[in-house]
Amino acid sequence: MTAIRLNELAEMNYRAHLLGDPEPISDEDIAEFKRRRAKRSANGSSKSDHMNSTWRYYADLSGA
Question: What is the mean pLDDT of residues 38-53?
Fold first, then answer.
């Protein structure tokens, strides 16, 4: 899953550069993202179900 996400992020970055010079994510936005992620973790939200369903999606695409 990490390799798939890395590829998706690289493609997004490439496309952003085709449109111009992308702005970096602000420190404020990064802090907000971290705050929300910590809140989800504190509430017991598990990303494993999401990861499993995402993996099944990509496995189905490949015919595995």
Answer: 75
CA 36 to chain CA mean position, Å:
14
Per the document, the length of the chain is: 64
Query: pTM for this one?
Result: 0.52
CA distance readout (Å), 25 to 18, 28, 29, 31, 33: 18, 8, 7, 10, 11
Give the contacts of 22 (CB within 8 A, at least 6 positions apart): 13, 16
CB atoms within 10 A of CB 21: 6
Chain position carrying tokens 């179900």:
49
